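Reopening this ticket.

The earlier resolution said the output was attached, but the attachment link was broken on my side. Pasting everything inline this time so it's all in one place.
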Amino acid sequence: MKPATGSTSDDGVGCQPMNVALAAGGLKPVSGFRLVVPTGNTVVRAAGIDDLGTNHSISISAPFVSILPVGAQFATITDDPPNGWVIALKPGLPGQASQDACDAIPKWTRFWDPFLSETAETLNALLHADLIDAACADAFADVVSVHIAVRYGHCAGAAGPPLPLTRQRLTRIEAFVREHIAETILVEHLAVLVHMSASNFARAFKMATGTPPHLYVTLERVKFARTMLREETIPLVDVGARAGFQTQQHFTEVFHRYDGMTPRAFRLAHRSADR
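Inline output:
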């Protein structure tokens, strides 16, 4: 595992290739957040403590990205040269929206954002063609900062009615939830799949399905857990983890709330019904 070291520009704004960010010198403490965008087969492991004293640890690989506080420690988990970008998000772009975004952006979790993925590929192409310098890279950092502020800030989608969700868009959301059911899934993750702000998406999703997106994900977790509980070979603790519940107690509480019995009772009842 390679320790995370490197440097950023004096004002804390920087857009650096992953191998440069992991070079000797040490990551400079600056205000704001860093966007970690692995590309290729690079896997980044990040760890740290938030302002509330909660420990966090995640692994990030393409096509997912993660926004991390500047105090987070991160490293690649293989000896291969790391590919991707580390972008220090600049506060104040555009104005108050960027400050508000600090409270709304999905920190300490993986999420997929098509714009950020395309940006990383563009940066890779410029780097390989030797067509990028520090000023150009930091200009990309400014653009990414604006995108984060507008997409995830509190002001995102504040004006205008929610657009309807088509069947095609709903199918895309359903497929994403099934594929990533074991992971943390935030409203922001689902919103970027259909190019909407989180607030507009939440209203549009409830309008289309009658169910808030958070409840939909929870019910899908319960449904997936039911399927696994019918398999006698899967331990109860593994069922909860595979269905995306953070603890066994949380799994038991949520399952009982929506099924009227504990996971163990459900398994026993199913076993009796098959006899």
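Reporter confirms the inline version is readable. The chain has a mean pLDDT of 79. Strands lie at 14-17, 33-38, 43-49, 55-61, 66-69, 73-76, 84-88.
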